[in-house]
Design a protein that fits this description.
By secondary structure, the chain is of the alpha+beta class. The protein has helices at about 15-20, 65-75, 80-90, 90-120, 175-185, 195-205, 225-230, 255-265, 280-300, 310-315, 325, 340; strands at about 25-30, 40-45, 50, 125-135, 145-150, 155-160, 165, 215-220, 235-240. The strands form 2 sheets. Strands 4, 5, 6, 7, 8 and 9 form a 6-stranded mixed beta sheet that branches. It has a 3-stranded antiparallel beta sheet with strand order 1-2-3, with no helix packed on it. Helix 4 crosses helix 9.
């Protein structure tokens, strides 16, 4: 097994990370970890601080080193955070902290894969966009929209996010009073649907092959054409609009995106309708969805039978099916670090 060579200094304030100062280091002994194995120490000449090979591991400075591997199958199997904590015998806040680290790691990992495929020529094909609706804390006062962009043929999830929606109308007096109190504290709740859709389309623009117009299928929501025009220009896209009231079977042109949204509701406890596992804050919903995206694109086969490839393999984004241990082995300091550590 080759010896570990640090690709850079792990400290963000190191001059070798921000300036054109070359990264120079020297070995400085060992220390013994919990499993009585020797871990190499290093000394950085740029910031004059020490670090070790452990500084680059995903579970760096975490008390329970394997907890994220045990938590991983639960978080994408509709098990709530509280129930996961009970099953794993840890405090809920411990798992919340792990979800924060894992969700950000999943986002960076996916962005890195998209950057790599864009450098190799991009993702051709037809893409589909739709939004599902959920809520944070209160179903009628704090609805949330979740725009999702996928590759139509391979079911690869390109991007997703979450944004606010205005309060629902026809509220009873009790909720109207509560709405007025919330608006005094936080201001009027606005729709972020346009911003979420624009974020999805900006990601699509980054991964499209050069000089190829975007081909997007969606329903007939009124804001989609204007957002497409603002992102791709008047002649840079082809928009195929379908009726959203058609029967949602395999004959529906929007079946791939409808199926993906149904899978999200089935796999994520925060998206199940009318249950106690809903998100209290949409920021946690985003983290949870990034973990699901990682599992859906790079771990789960496109079908459940046999050993078929994953959507990422079918689209050429990755060459193999990833395991949880591989995905959460190394920290990702920036989008250019992971290949040096694999």
């Amino acid at each position: 097994m080759p010896r570990f060579q640090p690709p850079h200094c792990p400290w963000d304030a190191c001059p070798s990370r921000t300036d054109s100062v070359p990264f120079r280091f020297q070995k400085r002994g060992f220390y013994c970890g919990r499993q009585q194995r020797r871990i190499q120490r290093f000394w950085c000449h740029g910031c004059r601080r020490s670090f070790s090979s452990q500084s680059f591991k995903f579970h760096y400075r975490l008390k329970y080193g394997r907890l994220h591997l045990d938590f991983w199958p639960l978080v994408v199997s509709k098990v709530t955070l509280r129930q996961s904590a009970r099953m794993l015998g840890v405090d809920r806040r411990t798992l919340a902290d792990r979800l924060l680290r894992m969700g950000e790691h999943a986002r960076r990992f996916h962005r890195l894969r998209l950057q790599e495929v864009a450098a190799r020529g991009g993702l051709p094909g037809v893409f589909q966009l739709d939004e599902l609706e959920t809520f944070e804390t209160d179903r009628r006062l704090q609805p949330v929209t979740v725009p999702v962009l996928i590759h139509r043929a391979k079911y690869f999830v390109v991007h997703l996010t979450a944004g606010t929606l205005p309060c629902r109308g026809s509220l009873p007096p009790r909720l109207r009073k509560k709405k007025e109190e919330r608006e005094k504290l936080f201001g009027k709740r606005r729709s972020q649907s346009r911003q979420g859709v624009e974020a999805c389309l900006q990601t699509l623009k980054e991964v499209l092959p050069p000089r190829q117009p975007a081909v997007l299928q969606s329903d007939r929501k009124k804001i989609y054409p204007s957002v497409l025009k603002s992102v791709f220009g008047a002649a840079g896209f082809q928009h195929l609009q379908e009726c959203s009231k058609r029967k949602r079977d395999r004959g529906n042109p929007l079946f791939p995106i409808n199926h993906t949204l149904a899978q999200m509701r089935d796999n994520l406890s925060r998206l199940v309708r009318r249950n106690w596992g809903h998100s209290k804050k949409r920021s946690w919903l985003r983290l949870h969805m990034w973990l699901w995206l990682l599992w859906r694109n790079y771990v789960r086969p496109i079908t459940a039978e046999g050993e078929p490839p994953t959507p990422g393999m079918l689209l050429g984004v990755t060459s193999r099916r990833w395991t949880a241990r591989e995905l959460f082995r190394w920290r990702i300091f920036s989008f250019s670090d992971l290949p040096d550590l694999q």
